[in-house]
Amino acid sequence: MDLFEALYTTRAMRRVKPDPIPLNVQEQIMDAAVRAPSGGNAQGWRFLLVDDPGQKAALGPLYRQALGVLFEGHYKVMREKAEAAGDAGTLSVLRSAQHLADHFEAYPLLLFAFTRNDPGGGSIFPSVWSAQLAARAFGIGTALTTVLGLFHAEEAMRILGVPEGKGWQLACTVTFGYPTGRWGVAPRRPAHEATHRNRWGEPAGFTTAEPLWSPGQVSPNDGRTAT
Length: 227
Ligand SMILES: Cc1cc2nc3c(=O)[nH]c(=O)nc-3n(C[C@H](O)[C@H](O)[C@H](O)COP(=O)(O)O)c2cc1C
Prior knowledge:
By secondary structure, this protein is an alpha+beta fold. The chain has one domain (3-187): NADH Oxidase (3-Layer(aba) Sandwich). It has nine helices and four strands; from the N terminus they run H-H-E-H-H-H-E-H-E-H-H-E-H. It has helices spanning 3-9, 23-33, 53-72, 74-85, 88-102, 125-137, 147-151, 153-160, 191-194, and strands at residues 45-50, 109-115, 141-145, 169-177. The protein has a four-stranded antiparallel β-sheet, with helices on both faces. Helix 3 packs antiparallel against helix 8 (153-160) and helix 4 (74-85) packs across helix 5 (88-102). The chain is globular, with a radius of gyration of 19 Å. Bound molecules: flavin mononucleotide. Flavin mononucleotide is lined by residues 11-12, 93, 97, 100, 143-147, 186.
């Protein structure tokens, strides 16, 4: 698959079918994930794949509780503001996040990513994103979530049998499944609004009115020689 298509269309795909992910596909995804960079190439990561219904059943209620804490706290204000402003995009993300929580046990595969000596997460999230991109290449949708680790890490790690006192932290949980919907370009504020040049606040030097890749479009580097 075209790299730019993967970069532009790998979105949070939370509505999925129950079909299992073949083991050789899981192997390829994880083999791609461990190619990612980590500080000092320490590879201080550990990944736990969960497809056992009993484990999912034990974790699901915890996940829902964790999301409840978030939704009753910080996200409550966000939801109220979005409702008042008729911000359909934000309301849709919140609905979709709730859908994931409500269907946690129905995802055929969950990936729990652990890291240590990595306070900023810089040595774990590249590998997680690589796993998500590799899944995208197989037409598998993923959703990265952190809410379980934020509010119920200890209980989740106990269920998962993570050794205590070794410094492991639950960085995130990623759901995997074949999507029921279609892939599309992720809507985002344009690049030039998030980018400055030389000094904060200065213009980036480009204005990107529309995404520079769209379905069916030739990739920026196609047919060109690297210079
Ligand atoms: C650090 C991080 C934490 C996230 N945590 C959650 C989460 O706890 N639950 C959830 O449903 N989605 C979570 N997401 C997914 C975001 O909501 C999603 O990436 C964002 O809404 C953009 O969605 P899109 O790529 O489909 O446009 C998280 C994403 C990131 C990068």
